[in-house]
Amino acid sequence: xxxxxxxxxxxxxxxxxxxxxxxxxxxxxxxxxxxxxxxxxxxxxxxxxxxxxxxxxxxxxxxxxxxxxxxxxxxxxxxxxxxxxxxxxxxxxxxxxxxxxxxxxxxxxxxxxxxxxxxxxxxxxxxxxxxxxxxxxxxxxxxxxxxxxxxxxxxxxxxxxxxxxxxxxxxxxxxxxxxxxxxxxxxxxxxxxxxxxxxxxxxxxxxxxxxxxxxxxxxxxxxxxxxxxxxxxxxxxxxxxxxxxxxxxxxxxxxxxxxxxxxxxxxxxxxxxxxxxxxxxxxxxxxxxxxxxxxxxxxxxxxxxxxxxxxxxxxxxxxxxx
Length: 322
Fold this sequence. Notes:
The chain has about 325 residues and is of the alpha+beta class. The chain is built from eleven helices and 15 strands.
């Protein structure tokens, strides 16, 4: 099953908007429609200069060309499930990823980079740190618009205090097959939201709520936003979390960097009462995001051996029997 290359996920300009203005309300309407139907969209956010993520991407070839035993040092530093270094697997045969657990903390960023690239790269460290802060501002705008769309904006401050951010840099190796190869199999993200910036090598495909596969083709000024299962659960299913995959074609490696927002350990992911009624019965039991990740990590080999699609961890562990 291929994607419809004539379609692309929506593009929404979120630059320099002020809450309560006509421009904010127009963008919010576009954003919520995209979140409902696609669970994915392309955001323009001019507060982030293109030079910043491009400077990070320019360093990634050297980083990923390191020996595997060097990249594995990140696993000694990371404290997160699915943190650290992720190498090629049957699930992601062309995929590698390196994570920064706490990119808001410049000292921790420097510790990781110094472990991989002695004596480190101070400009790279500062760029990762600064990029994360600006990306989190974009995430805050998106979350606020979603909550306003649902009439639950009173939870916005609680959200800010209940999440943490991690940054991952990713490489998808160019395939040997000219027809294209799977870079990362079909899956859903388990976080609140993922915001990606990539070099101009396409490959990301998402499934819409009505079952159509479409490409997510970015422009140089775009950030690709993907809604995760934790936000889907928190909104009682109203925000759609899409299946997505990466299919690699051509002869150029694909590099990307992504900000991942997740709920802190101990925070109970639970839909607000005002989002639960007869028309929208409760879909998921309350859960701790960290425990969710640990169970997925424990069962990944068993359930993801062939394809992720028949297995939805959120439903498997926390679905409410209706």
